[in-house]
Amino acid sequence: MYAFQYERPADVAAVERALSGGAQALAGGQTLIASMKLRLSQPGTLVDLGALAELRGVCREGDTLVIGSMTRHADVAAHPDVNALLPGLARLAGGIGDRQVRAMGTLGGSVANNDPAACYPSAVLALGATVRTTRRRIAADDFFQGVYSTALEPGEIITSIAFPIPKAAAYAKFRQRASRFALIGVFVANTGSGVRVAITGGGNGVFRHAGLEAALSADFRPEAVDAVAIDPSTLGSDLHATAEYRAQLIRVQTQRAVRQAHA
After folding, report:
1. Domain boundaries, the chain
2. The model's pTM
3. 45-48 and 58-61 as β-strands: parallel, antiparallel, unpaired?
4. Which CATH superfamily is domain 168-262 in?
5. Alpha-carbon distance 200 to 203, whole Å?
6. How far apart are CA 40 and CA 124, in angstroms?
7. Helix (H) or strand (E) holding 189
């Protein structure tokens, strides 16, 4: 590791002042610290968000579940309100990484990082969540903009994410064995006004699938997926899986998610 300055502000206002000078925010550190060790990221100043209790916790606002950005994966997975109102999200959080990752990683850190195989972005996008920041509110459909790219501006941090409570929702993931990231992960949400399907692990970032959404909006059963075309040319190939294999995984994981949503 190289030399850098470390700050741990006690409130969001102090964080904003620190970040205005070009410092790097540190949430759970599950990606950033590893990147720093490899010199892939070399911030001169780290601003640790860990002392900001106001960014942790879960609360209900009407028909929306609001989760603070610094809420750990393990806490999302164990929270009674998440399990009662959004069990698909609790299951997703409980399947991220290993126990150490779940104990340290945060909702906001994962969403802001937007790894193309991360789990949380699929839930945010499928549920039509709203990302709340220190400056504004951003709809999920406008937030994710490509590999490790989001609508966040320099110095802007996520404070919480508001998840509409759906009629039914579930997440199914086929793990990459070494990293436990999603080789393919599919989050399905029956919102009452239609079904939204978001896929992670397919290539250049999380995305919605119009064909799956149309089929499941008309018939919310696993069998409805059989007739939907999954185009492998839109997916990535690497040493872990070909595009054709990922296309088949999308079909299978979507069907599994729908079955879970009915359970």
Report:
1. 1-48, 168-262
2. 0.95
3. unpaired
4. CO dehydrogenase flavoprotein, C-terminal domain (3.30.390.50)
5. 8
6. 27
7. strand 182-190
